[in-house]
Amino acid sequence: MRLWLLPVLAALARASAGLVFVADHDYEADVLVYAVDHDYEADLDVFVADHDYEAEGTDEVWYFTDHDYEADVVIYYTDHDYEADLKVFFVDHDYEAGWNHGHAWQERLH
Hints:
This protein is mostly beta strands and 110 residues long. Helix content is 8%, strand content 28%. It has one domain.
């Protein structure tokens, strides 16, 4: 294999970043998520993209997949904030999305 191909293959492997699948059960998930009502309550403000390529390489832009095998991260929505690993607030614009403070899941969702 030619060495110049390695960076290209690495970039292609990362091309599906930001893909999220919602599990039916908490034990199937990588991350337990609670959706808060206000952005000041959230660890992460999330923008939901219309296309998978818009979510590449980011924690804060999500694209929801229909299959768990397509996802970079599998989440489960909890009913209570104290059960959650991550609290999210969904925003209307991509420029509003981002981490509100440092968090253990930062740079690990994609």
